[in-house]
């Protein structure tokens, strides 16, 4: 009985599958590059005028570097728990573009939250709704299996918020002349989420904030970060946002 030769057909199928994956990868990278070229330069130019070159550079380095370090650490944890080094150690290549994109949206939410943006010449959305829309898309894609590179949006959002909330140095019209972060209620962690999540997140946020203060991980402040006690600082980031409203 003649046995059909399946070797060449199998090789063709493997090559075809590999070629398809390569094309999808190139298309995805082209989409990321296009979004970066359209959105990022204009955004950086605006933030440079508001913050200055040094503070903008710090924000970029922190958002991109820390997000990628967290993603790298997550891959190692997944490898130790699940195995599959070909997937978690060698199969995921992250790029900083998505972390930077969501970080810029977070910065705009801090500065001009009520500003309307027109998308595709048709849809009008407020700036403050855009980060969570991007984050929701990332969450859905990660759940269905596209961790690479969409998980970077999760980390970029959180890292950029933490930096702007606690660490970014701001020159203000006050006795000390310098303050750190944006401690306003409208930029708190719970403000990003629906009301039914505010209770548990407030408890968690206050607990983590107390521990961070105890171990001097964040600059000290006389106001409660997540609880709502906040005195407006003239000239600060939130004052700038209020003026722009």
UniProtKB/TrEMBL annotation:
It is a multi-pass membrane protein. InterPro entries: Rhomboid-like_sf (IPR035952), TMEM115/Pdh1/Rbl19 (IPR013861). The chain crosses the membrane at residues 59-82, 94-112, 132-159. Keywords: Membrane, Transmembrane, Transmembrane helix. It comes from the Eukaryota. SMART domains: DUF1751. It is found in: Membrane. GO terms for cellular component: Golgi apparatus; membrane. One of its GO terms (biological process) is retrograde vesicle-mediated transport, Golgi to endoplasmic reticulum. It holds the Pfam family DUF1751. This is DUF1751-domain-containing protein.
